[in-house]
Each structure stands twice: as C-alpha cells, then as structure tokens.
From TrEMBL:
Source species, domain of life: Bacteria
Annotated ranges, domain OmpA-like: 196-324
Species assigned in the record: Burkholderia ubonensis
Entry protein name: OmpA-like domain-containing protein
InterPro entries in alphabetical order: Bact_OuterMem_StrucFunc, DUF2846, OmpA-like, OmpA-like_sf
Keyword Signal annotated: yes
GO CC entries: membrane
Alphabetical list of Gene3D superfamilies matching this protein: OmpA-like domain
Amino acid sequence: MKGIQTMKHLALASAMALGLAASPAFAQQYQTDDTMAISAAGTQAGKVFGTSYAPIGQVAPDQAQIVYYRTQSAGGKAKAANVYVDGHFQTALLPNGYTTFCVQPGNHTLGAYLNDAPEYRGKTQNLFEANLKAGATYFLKVQESGNGAPVAVSREQAERELQGARAQVHALSRAATTVACHVTQAAQPVVAPAAPQYKDYKLKSDLLFAFGKSGYRDINARGREEIGRLVEQMRREDADTMQITVVGHADQIGSDEAAERLGLQRAQTVRRMLIERGLPASRIEAQSAGNTEPVVNACRGTREQVIACYAPNRRVVVRADMASAN
C-alpha cells in the first residue's frame, strides 16, 4: 500500500537505549537510499556493532528522541531490517541491534523493513507517520513479520529486551532530518515493583462441597474440619489479625455467568464459616474469580472424566494481606 499511514499506536515512553550481540553471519551488503553499497566491513574501522546497551537520559526540550531496536529472537542469520526516517535510510538493524537518534518535534515517518531490496519501499511505500512530542523519548521495536510499521513499547519492556544488546554502527546514515541528541538529565534507574505482601491459603472445593454445590448446608464434615484447621493455622501465623479476602473459583463446565455466580456463593459460604470460628467479620470480604484463573484447561472425555479433570480449578482461596497486620 502506497502513501502515509498515521501511527496512532505510538506511545510516549521513558528514556532507554538498546544494543546487539555481534554476529559473524553479517557478511552481505546493504544498500542505502542513494544506492550506495555499505559492506559488512562497515564504516567504522570494520565494526558492525558498537557499545552495549545503557539507559539513556532525558532529551532536550526542543528534540524528540527515538530508540529503534530489534530483539534477538530473529536469530543470528536473519537479514537486516532497514530503518527509514522521513523516507531516508538511517541504519540496517540486525537481531539484538539498536540505534538511537533525535529529530525535531513534529510529524515524521518511521519504519523498519525486512527484505527491502531492490524496491526499497521504506522510501516511498507503507510510510507510517507519527507526531513526535518535544522532550519525549520513544522506544520502537522492529516487526519480524508485517508491513514495516514500528511497534511502540514501554521503557520497562524495552529494558528487559535490550539487556546485552549493542549499537548498530556498520552503516552510514543518510537521514537528513536526524540530529545529534542533547541529553539534559541522566536516566533514572527503574525500581522493580514490590512483591505482593499476602499469603494464600488454598482449599479444594471438592473437599468442601459436592460438585455444583455452594451453600452453607452443602459443606460436608470433612470440609468443616478442613476450615477448622485453616483457622487454627491462620491464628498461629497471626493471619487472623489481617485483612482477608475469600476468593471462589469455578471450573469450565457451564457458562461463564454460572461460574461467576458459583464462585461468589462458595466464597460467601466460606466467609461465613470463618466468622463463626471467631475471625472478625469486618476484616473478611468475599469475591469471585469465576472460571477466569484455571489451573488446568481443555479437559475431555466422559462427563465423569471431565469433572475429575477440572477438579483443581474448583477451589477457594483465603488470602491474608500481610501488609494490613496490626
């Protein structure tokens, strides 16, 4: 398809850079947009790859910064993806390679094209336009299949995928609209989110209820004993002083609506029994996960076999919020 398409999917992300592991398989020639051949020997004293990935900082307010990269999943022998900026060749990315450049804020076309020769469609076809904001940094990922459109990703995702990558330096950029980046602030380290501070106590529904049942009177003697032991354990671990959420889970037999309803009814029944055994009602709530968090999938066979197969999905989880302890 000829013409310009708007990249509405481009999302603003925090600053980050990418790099690439050296590949001896790069032994072919790549063509720039002015038909000048760039050999595998490169233009920097035979180098194909430069520095390893390191996070990049905040770009100057009168620029927009782009980190364009390719993951290692394409394999070491994959052909290069030609990157074009405003219809002009910028570099040829190999797997696990990256390039960083800046442009003036405003509308620009961007793309990375595999099997680009001899048409070099990145200059004239499937041009993807984006309005790049002043002071913003964008992280764009090469599509290994498709029409050359860039994939915008977050800093968090890019940092996972760019570890160990190296800069692509073998080719000479012909992109006249790119400029040297002026970084005004060093990159801030990404702080991993805190691990969830809760503990799950899991009860198999088949130990509490007969198949398809959920009421208070449906709990069998073995199920009542199981809940009694659970309360004793929670008291030993001081979980009875915490905020508690009882979550009911159902299997994939029947409709989603029925599973949602059954999960909630079972959670409410277990909540009632916890309260009867002395846990404070004000600290316990009931929720349903329906059939949305299965342990097993795609059970087949007779009805009895399917019911038995899906047994792990029928469960009640009593979750204690460790951060809420008195």
